[in-house]
Structure prediction request, 711 residues.
Amino acid sequence: MTEPVIVLKHLSKSFGNVHAVRDLSFQIEAGTIFGFLGPNGAGKTTTMRMLCGLTHPTGGRATIDGLDVWQDRQKVRTKFGYVPQRFSLYPDLTVAENFRFFGGAYGVPRAELESRVERLLRVIDLEEKKNTAAQSLSGGMRQLLAIGCALVHDPSLLFFDEPTVGLDPVHRQQIWNLLYDLSHEGKTIFVTTHYMDEVERCTEVGFIEEGRLLAKAPPRALKSSFRTRLLEVDIEPLMPALVRLRSLPELLGVSLRSGGLRLYVSDPEKLLARWRENWPFPDLRLLGERWVEPDMEDVFTAYSQGYHGVLRKPAS
Amino acid sequence: MKWLSLEAVASVAYKEFLHIYRDRRVLLLVLTLPPLFTLLFGHAFETGELTGVPSLLIDQDNTPRAQEFIDIISKNKTFQWRHGLPDMKDESNLLGHGVRAALVIPAGWNESLENGDPKPLLLYVDASDINTADAVEGSVRQSLGDFQLKQRDRMIETLPEEVFELGKQLPVQIRKRFVSMMEMWSVDRKLLYNPKSRVIDYVVPGIIGLILQLLTVTLMACTIARERESGTLYQLMVTSLRRREIVIGKMLPYLVVSVFLVLVIMVVSGWHFGVAFHQLPALALVCLLFLLCSLGLGLLISAFSRTQTQAIQFSVFFLLPVFVLSGAFAPLEQLPTAVRYVSELFPLTHFCRAFRLVNMYDAGLQFYTGDLVILLAGALITFIGAVFLLRRIEQ
Prediction:
């Protein structure tokens, strides 16, 4: 087991009566790609900003490399790079000028800065845009530039707050490839997202909702926390079926996935046997059924909706 | 760790300089308005006196003597005379006649002067603006005095011989006293510190201060607010820059721009209005401290405001009273004592005082040390305040 880079101990943040983050305790090991998943307003950004020393915790504490993220924030800052949700570079400065500014701001030695900027321009594939003002770049290029600027002081830890929001699939893929490369170089990556497919790309996932940590484990372990197999059925007509099934008391939940209905139920075999014997909906036709692997969305839905009937504790 | 990293300050300063350089519209404004304003304000304050007040003159007496008086008062530059008919009844309706004053020479005026019971002239003045009312009355009195002096001289010239004979019988001492009473007692005026009595020399520090406060305070006020608005301030805060490095780095390019503007304004007022500048090192010190104080104020407003709009509103509200109460264009002594204490709070007050002491009075350092100390204190307080306020955005 490697040393934990980030350690959270009962970390909390309240704004008056609003508890944005409640009692978070977990740790992240070096070299991890940690995906922090949760709906909007769940406390992802607040947690990340506390870890970056931008806002002070109202309870508990967190450390990066053993240094308190609030008390020692001046020292901690050289250890990580931060890419916020909103584009936060200088639009009137060129790509190279943005790099040089952040290089200077992080105290990168001048002799080393130019070669580092050249290397990063290659990494983010913006060599040709070197002298273009940041405001003239496309959304994807801006995001790449923001990542590049966060790398200028060669930190071992990177925070990304929803790095791919609003980007086209090509740029999303490009950014994830970049994250893999960084991870391969041994950097630890902390990324928030609400895209389920992106979570699958992480080596470790944390679910957060209403400021509380619901689960934290590698994606595979989370998926195997489904206690039962997942039943997917084809029923016609589809939409009335969705409504009717939702009102069935023994079903914890139903979700529609590419034309099939996934049923969250604690004993799907029993339900299916009963339905085969006696189909309860004369106006609906059961066309077929199959067993499927739960995906991350199923897992997150189960955790966030509290479908404890289908879950067991993940082996973390 | 060093208290201040020069490299860090330099990178912030260079970035901030690029912001100014890239914003061509503001740059154009910054470079053209100050010399333009200097010309405009300079000419506006060239003469301090009231001239060409539209006034109505009604001569009901219609005698040669009244005409003589009219000739004298017609030469008075304060007035732009229009002649009314003698039988005019509504001379007090100044607004209706489109004038600010009306002077009536009453019927029988000449006769009353002859008979030793001089009738007063009648003056109606628009007192809505007190300065105009006083100046108009003073001008009428002055012309009347000139007229009376002439009349007296003529009377003495035409006195019959017997009067002189009679006079010679009086004791010498009494005769001397009479002569003395007949002479106009006078003041021998020596103008000091501004011998040519030029308003422009007095007003130059006001113009410099006004333009610089307008530009530097508002521009500076926008810098941190802009970063806060665009989210870049957080990006700035996660770097290893310290708050003091951010504040000093942001201030430097604006200081350079301001120094350049001071020079431009001084060159324009020297070349176009012939204003002379003395003790350049002392002036430079006064200007530098004033600039630091103004920039610090801008930073303070900037660190305090959430948006650029707020920053501009705060600056305008701060600058409004300054123009009226700082003594930039009129002496502070016009203000009541209690208000003068408020004036002492504004950097412009101390700047104008120190600037005039150096440039007009050629005074030694001991006369304006107090003002320099206050400007320095203001600069320190505002900078430390801005650094402290920046702390709040981390919470």
